[in-house]
Amino acid sequence: MFRRNITRFSALLAVGALALGSACAPGETIEEPDDTDNGTQAPAEPPAVEEGQFAGETLNYLYFTDGPDEQATRDLIADFEAEYDVTVELEILAYADLISSLNARLSGGNAPDVVRLTGLGEFAADLLPLEDYLGAEFADEFLEGPMMAVRNNADQMIAVPSDLTMNGPLVNLEMFEEAGVELPPTDDPWTWDEMLAAAHEVQEATGSSYAFAMDKSGHRVATVLAQYGTALLNDDGWALDKEAAVRALQPLIDMMADDTMPRDFWLGSGSRYEGANEIFLASDTPIYLSGSWQVGQFVENATFDWGVAPNPCDVECGGFPGGKFMAALSASDNPALAAEFVRFMNSTENQEHFASVSGNLPTRVDLAEAGVSYPAEAQAAMDVFIADLNRTAEVGFVANAQPAFGASGTALTGQLDMVVAGQKDLATAMDDLQPEVEGIVEEMGSW
């Protein structure tokens, strides 16, 4: 193992302005005049948590897992329970059930204390402004790129960007070797045409079921769009170049038409997210477009040699950023404990442990500068994802930070369903997508 310096990663993510929001100290409201519209400001250093302050209390954490992150989370929870003399009830749900469950609990007056999310827009009004409890300077501990997604219109930090991911192609090295097809070096990526040509060559040589697979996910489709120089959303809303989108997505539609990309898998999941990891693990495809969170799982479960290739290029190179957020709920029975739990889980030491075990990239400034040591068997794969971060266009960070991104991505995959099913052509689907996404943006409104 070795430590990789990712200072360039930090520089890449330092986009957007970092504004400080209004806040107060734990358990009290401190009002001080200033020049802002709301007339309050957060103390830079809130009172420290007193020893025994939370002793005997219980906290509920609503969680979904990608696999190896679960044990890391349980380890850190055990440390938190021991240090604060509290009990944390970890409630793990399938990702597909998370949103409906959280909505039901909020409607029923049974909010969890803390939740892990992939997007904040739908719940922004329900989330606890963390600077109220952790101070105005807490936000400075995190990279500004991921921080773009966690500020509401009042400039309040309503979550921590707890782990950063990067989309990209995972490859079956044994299948490529059998076919005699070489992978591109990390610093000289494929074009899309070159990658798909290689995929078909390997499929033909090895007899695999498919040439290419990708998750049924708006986020993964957004990766392809970004590489063709466009995105669903920008800061103002709809931003898609529909001609570029057709050029980007038609090869995927064509592959599903001839089933060199699994058509039934795409249509079989309906409107829900579906991961294609089992197809890859069964050696049914040589290339699988997914992301960095799969590294830990594949280290444990793959029965063949695998690796990560650099993202293919067209107009742009690089991948598409994503990640998870840890947020406390305003309706928590103990918001001070909830905020302290969020802080503890994302301290330098604890985020490094979580990132190393789960195969995620760090969001803290200090870890981005110092680097993270991953397990030896995962380091090479993570190095490729980190290199792709240096090539990733800013439009990806902007789109991913848009509150309407999650629902808009679902709308995108829904339109693609109709194309794959033969109900409309791709150009018509992109035309139909625009009013749908514009309606989502209008409905989401401001945070």
Attribute tags:
eight-stranded mixed beta sheet; 11% strand; alpha/beta; D-Maltodextrin-Binding Protein, domain 2; 19 helices; disordered N terminus; 447 residues
Q: Label the CATH architecture of the largest domain.
A: 3-Layer(aba) Sandwich
Name the overall outline. Answer: globular
Taken in chain order, the helices and strands follow as HEHEHEHHEHHEHEEHHHEHEEHHHHHHH
Return the CATH class of the largest domain: Alpha Beta
Number of domains: 2
Number of strands: 10
Q: Given the structure, what is the number of helices?
A: 19
What's the N-to-C terminus distance? 42 Å
Mean of residue pLDDT values: 87
- Report the sheet-strand fraction: 5-15%
Question: Mind explaining what this structure looks like?
Answer:
By secondary structure, this protein is α/β, with parallel strands linked by helices. The radius of gyration is 22 Å and the shape is globular. Strands 1, 2, 3, 4, 5, 8, 9 and 10 form an eight-stranded mixed β-sheet that branches. The chain has a two-stranded antiparallel sheet with strand order 6-7. It contains 19 helices and ten strands. The chain has helices at residues 7-13, 69-84, 95-107, 131-134, 144-147, 173-179, 192-206, 218-227, 242-257, 263-268, 277-281, 294-301, 335-345, 348-358, 365-370, 376-389, 394-401, 405-420, 426-444, and strands at 58-63, 87-92, 114-117, 160-172, 213-214, 233-234, 237-238, 287-291, 306-308, 321-328.
